[in-house]
Fold these 4 entries.
Entry 1:
Amino acid sequence: MNSKWPEVPLDSLKADAKSAFAMGPFGSNIKSANFVSVGVPVIKGGNLGGTYLDERKFDFLTQQKADELESSKARRLDIVVTHRGTLGQVGLIPESSLYEQYVVSQSQLKMSFDTTKADPYFIYYFLRSSVGQARLLANTSQVGVPAIAQALTTIRKLLIPLPPKEQQRVIASMLRSLDDHITLLRETNTTLEAIAQAIFKSWFVDFDPVRAKQEGRAPEGMDEATAALFPDSFEESELGLVPRGWRYSTVGDSFFLTMGQSPPGDTYNESGDGLPFYQGRTDFGFRFPSQRVFCTAPTRIARSGDTLVSVRAPVGDVNMALEDCCLGRGVAGVRHPRGYRSFAFYVTRGLRSKFDLFDSEGTVFGSINKKDFQGLPVVDPLDEVLAVFDHVATPIDQRVIENEGQIRVLTALRDTLLPRLISGQLRLPDAEDAIAEVVA
């Protein structure tokens, strides 16, 4: 790294504590039988995938068990890295974290720093940078489970550029502001999607408007014109009661289904030539896939707005195409013949329990073929109801798309600024101007 700052080993910045740098306990010290519903959370690799620390899903230990593993405890402003398994994961327990103490799992390593010498957020961002990642993974073994060789010794010796403390704080603050904006947009998208999903469930799963009219009540949350589109009674079908005039159909009868197919390997590239190429779940995000690989000779194509479904290991993850894209054999595209994109997306999401069956039938490698996919049951409402739902859901989905665009701009800016700020190659006023221009 061409840094203007002096470089020091991480070990020189550690807190004055016996277990400032420590690995998680051996697996035999934490067993599934130790987990409880409430207690001290255990940080695993799955908690290190986002910004700082993902606190949405933890296993817990009793306080007594956690105290037995004192050296493996982590607290606010500690940094956690994965030393075994999915290498390169880095997390930081923020000041606003939900818990005062955690235990790191056997595949993680925690570091506590002397905050008079270094800003933990600065160290966190360095370890996430391309240079930090290269240094973190420079001494790895790929025999069996990937691992950082002699992890504690390797990480203690890892060199980091160290500007004066105040400049560390300013640099970290800039990067944190970008991450905070990204987090806020992601949370907003989660809320927006939940709103649209709730409307879909009410109309097409629970049939709330029909039940209300059957009971002589006005359907909640809709005007008279919309309510008039729903019938006031049910009729029997092979799959149970369905609103009068509606029917149960199948994916094959109600949608265009395109199963992916892998093009020749020599048509792939990472330089942006051709269409984005999605191979499966590894490309999927919260709502939209990430562009990593492109294809110059696509054989199966999904159009912008089509619903994308993982059809191989595991089956059933759902995304939406932001642009025309090439489908690999691990992905299928679903499109409504009359263009009701929002309905297609949420009805496919609603097939989760059906998709799960294809991952739990004892097969080593879960998958669903075209015939089975086409045979999955879906509700087929009246066309005028579909039109109204899309009229309601499309503006919500459009806001999600706009927020995603902003997320990608902010992410690209952060990733561009990160190495230059960390190395001191970018003047702080110039970075502030670049951030203000995008965030304004």
Entry 2:
Amino acid sequence: MNTMALILNTNALGGAERSIIEQMAPLGMSDRLTVFMPRLNSSSDKLNDFILKNLNCCIKQFEVPVGFYSLSRQHSFWHFFRAVLSLISAPMMVWKMKRLHSYDSIYANGNKAAIWCLFCLFMTGYKGRVFWHFRDYPKLNSLIVSGINFVKRFSSFKLHFAANSQSVASLVTNVLLDEVQVIYNPIKISSFVKAPTRHHRIGVVAMLAPWKGIHEIILFAHLYEKELRGLGFKEVGIYTSDIYQTQGQHQNYIEELGELSRKFPSTLVKMHFDKNPSEIFNELDILIHSSSRPEPFGRVIAEAFGYSVPVISTALGGAGELVKDQVNGLVYQKYDYTGLFENIKKIATDSALTQKLVAEGLKTFNQMNQSGLDAMEHFVGVAA
């Protein structure tokens, strides 16, 4: 029986980690799968629990040079210098990664994990199959692209690429000039029936990052508080988690949100931290997906579909592959507060439209889930 090592990008439980674990679970590989996560300072308890609950497989750690992860989010001279110094210990770490040779295939989930993994496997002469699953748009400079092409040409292993949306796949294909399998993220929904009564709450569900548009929702609530209350809403919920510790471009964002709330107050805005999806979507009447730049996928949109919550989205990137305006959701232009309010008003006052959006959203959810599971099975060749 073929064995596989799954290499995770981080030891925190984020959307990418939920997705790959939920994709692996139906394949029935638990007894021949080992999950490797990087040894970092942050806690991995939530991720460990999630892996054991869904896969019940062996969990191990692997070493990465100090500064390798922080350099991807913090670009100061000090972090670059620290990363260079850490290369002194890299040869030993590379040699330790030779233990991956005992697996028939390696599945790298994310960009940082894949780059480090490819380097180690190339240097140690691995001969199996390697799968690289892009969960985000690749930030690949010419040097990295040249390195990947060198590995593709001269390595002893076969490299396969996947992406979690057509949007990401197109960019990867343009950069690496290779075939990319699109595998939509399946979303596991526990047995759940949403209460038919209104909860008088709209909200945004997003990690703490400026491009997620949380600050735009705070400004929107300030400008349209009277109108939202007139529609019967009692809360604009901000559901978030600081899984990346607000480093780099995220630095101090939570403090900036606090300052913005004081400058443009709204009694509607409430912050909620680290709630699980079933809690969140049981409380929401409408999900606002407010990203200001293209999403690689849009997991919270799929979750809202699965939990029968109507969606209003900017529909950029992969999110636009999920949300079809007036069909399974409503679309507004980023920064268009008037357009956002008019869409909220439509859902709040037109029950026939809302029922249609919810029904079509659930249909999209089921189709996307089946497509993702089928594509994953084909990609890794489990059936063979």
Entry 3:
Amino acid sequence: MTQRSVEAELDLFDRRIRSSAAQLGERWPHTADPATGVWTTTEDGDWTGGYWSGMLAIAQATGREVVPPGLRARLTGKLRRRAADDTVSRGFLFYYGAALGAILLADQTAAEVACEGARALAGTFNPRARVIPVGARSEEEHSMGPQHVTIDGLVGTLPLLTWAAGASGEPELREVAKQDALGHIAFCLREDGSVSQSAEFDPRSGELLRRYTHKGLHANSTWARAQAWAILAFAVGARCFPEEREILRAACRAAAWWIARASGDDIVAWDFDAPAGSFRDSSASAIAAAGLLKLAPLAPPDEAARLREAGQRTVETLVSRYLTPVGPDDARGPGMLIEGCYNPHVGRATRHELIWGSYYLYEAVNVLTGRLAADRL
């Protein structure tokens, strides 16, 4: 990536952030129509709102003042009411939506909000299963509950609790995060390095009852976002818990499985078992790229270069093919990461901009340019 191309990419992001802020006010973006750029929004942030606040924090931390002063802080304050919600998705909200403001900008109010969310999450930890379960108010509550886990949730809970342990002086939060990471490895990582999105366990004994992929093509398939979430979560876990070599091995296994099966010149299909011609998912590739860039500095020397190259190649593919405008005659608004696939089972946002995909690509571009260190996020 040349300096000139990087500046052009960041300019596209700046323009998209500005236009989104003008459209959104103090609501949170969720998915955006690829033809118009108009966001579907949420009042309470759903599980995705923290990613918008996280993008604003990165922009502010890197000197790119692209939205009205105080917007990020006001959004962070609104998250407080979500602390009591019984859902593992609080990890996404309170890490990206609050803790990043504390980490990158020394925002004390954001630190307080993030610690409130972390304490509430830790209170749902099941010590027999060694996991934080999905919870009773998850977006998956129609099919899941306190006896289920999903690899998605670990992406937020692990860095949130680990950071909050130091920020609050409560080391027990760090121990919960570590056990949660180990529990998810036992429940979700298959022998070959692929990932089963979810698992059901006996809440009394903690015994694993079954593994399954509830958002993938079928119960035993490998949903692309599950594999990407695992790379990212285990990479963060390897950084936070260097004494637990099992977590680093899990991250490397999940990454190796991804690299061996992801196309070298395009983004992945929404499920690795999906037939040719199926929807692609730019958000899964963006998540994986962010995870690979975090994992590379931690991996053994013979793997580090391969991981970083794979992460950089994925970023270059995303920005050259899927970040609008993708051609000289593209009439769409700039800076949209298109071709994200939310949920093809119900036809929901199958070729759209997804706020989490945009966040992870924005993060990865800033890491590759040296504006942010991967180990700060």
Entry 4:
Amino acid sequence: MATGTYEGAPIDTRDTYQKLTSTDVYMARIKFACWTKNTFTRAVGAEGFGVEAMQNVKQFQNAKPTGRMVRLDSGVYQISGSIFDNSATSTHVGRLSRRNPELIEGGDMWAYAWHLMIAQAYAPEIDVEDNTKGPIDILQHKMLVIQSQLMQDFNYAILGHASGPNNGTMGPSAVYSNLPNLISVTQSRTVGNIAATNSFWQNGLEEITSAGGGGDLDRPLVLRRKLLKRSNTQMTYGESTGPNDYMILTTQGGHQYYDRLMYADSITGGKGDFGMSNRYDAAGVQAHAFNGAPMIWDPSVTVPFGATASTESYYGIHIPSFFVGIRAEHNFKWRGWEASRQHDEYPTTVGGVSVRYTPGVSARRPHWVAYNLPSCPD
């Protein structure tokens, strides 16, 4: 993983302050590649920058943020704790260096600011010099390696990772900020310094233990009815803003179950709420339609925290209250190719790109998850 691991380190002196004060400098190509890597990030990018922006890097570079799902901010997201506390927190261990991911504020509180993700590559100087007119541009190749690593990890950061989906992937576990934790089954955790005992800070739940074949070429009727029940229930809350502001994200098996519904409906001449949504067509994302919302699947989706492993899940994501926060001063910052220093034993050119980010929800109640659907046998 590009971020390496996290390990304990005390925060009790001011020399641990974040000193990253760079302006918003990034390579549009790498940023575009990260937002277009997978289905979910394409959909988030389409909401955040407009569907046309996702068609090519030039349009993406000139796009103005829409204000939906992608936030470019400064400042911090406060968690709580004393700045005089010597107990272990977290330190980022990267390929070249270690950074403390906390930004210490004045007063009696400290705050986790953002997760810091770094992808770096090395090119021995002698190889670069000897390959000036060679068939392979070494620095260009290394840049693609950096891009590929960050693309992969950026998706894991938001969607979780199959090997540890409940562990606040890509950041200190106390933040619990990836999708399986933000929209979860077990809601005993404090997310964003708001206790899960508050009803407005609990997302909707719908356990589905059977798809319920209903004839007509195996139409999963139980699945449809329970999804519809949960979707309609969440839309009754004041925070919800209607079906057009939802995106349904599902696992591969969940997508295939739903495809049975669509197929059976088309063969039998039904008039149900099936078919395709064209909301993300221009962004290259095909989506089914359910209850007014596009339904997509992404290969990286994992089950929500508290659900049974190896089952199928559906996330009902309320678009206006789900966001991926990107720190404006560190918005996919390209560090450039740095030449070796005089004292280096092995002169090596180093390049890297980094981003400080956090996924989050401004309200949790309008979101919902359907879970524990038996693994699809298709």
